[in-house]
Fold Class I SAM-dependent methyltransferase.
Amino acid sequence: MKPAHTLQKLQSPQSWAELPWGEYYRAALEQQLQPWWPKLFGFHLLKIGSLSAELTTDKCAISHQVNVGMSGAGLQVRADAYQLPFAAKSVDACLLAHSLPYADDPHRMLREVDRILIDDGWLVISSFNPLSLLGLAKLVPRLRQRQPYASRMFTQMRLLDWLSLLNYEVLCQTRFHVLPWHRKGGKFLSTHLPALGCMSMIVARKRTLPLTPTPLKMGARKPSLGRAVGATKSYRKLP
């Protein structure tokens, strides 16, 4: 498995329109997110990256929404995603719409997002699926320098592993939009073969307690009250 960190500098698109069939990706992602926005609650939603900023989130229950990124239209705060200018545990939800595929150090980006999220905060991640028609096209050498094939494509299993290490509870994991050149992504294929979808989405929540109890966390067993601790049996001979 290739390491997550790379020395290659990836150029993130400033808009979904810069990607071939990008508006189709955007519409498909917005449709998948639509039932989740009313479930998110809190005071602050952070939309990290220009692609996140372009997504329609007016149905979100969180009214105060801030677009953050280094460049692009519609940004309220210009900042590096590796050094977000927000206090620890001050944000209720973060949206990373295709931010990790263009990150040279996705681990560091996730750790920074984890720093600013409150306990039980929401994290929404989307990316491209390498096990799809889009991923197969990435194997063609002459396409690797073009968008979206120039991005890094992580399997959903790998993303879930990263979230598990940070102690996130995954509430939703899905893949969709099988045919990238089709407006509806091939509705029949997307319904019956979602694992081949070009798009991947994960909704998770930050947990403070371990999801799986361990002996160290549970503590050592208390000694039984039926016997004294450290006592030994002794017998006195009767006269």
Q: What stands out?
A: Residues 223-235 have pLDDT under 50 and may be disordered. Residues 22-33 form the longest helix (12 residues). The chain has one domain: 22-206. Helices lie at 22-33, 50-54, 106-116, 133-137, 156-165, 187-192, 215-218.
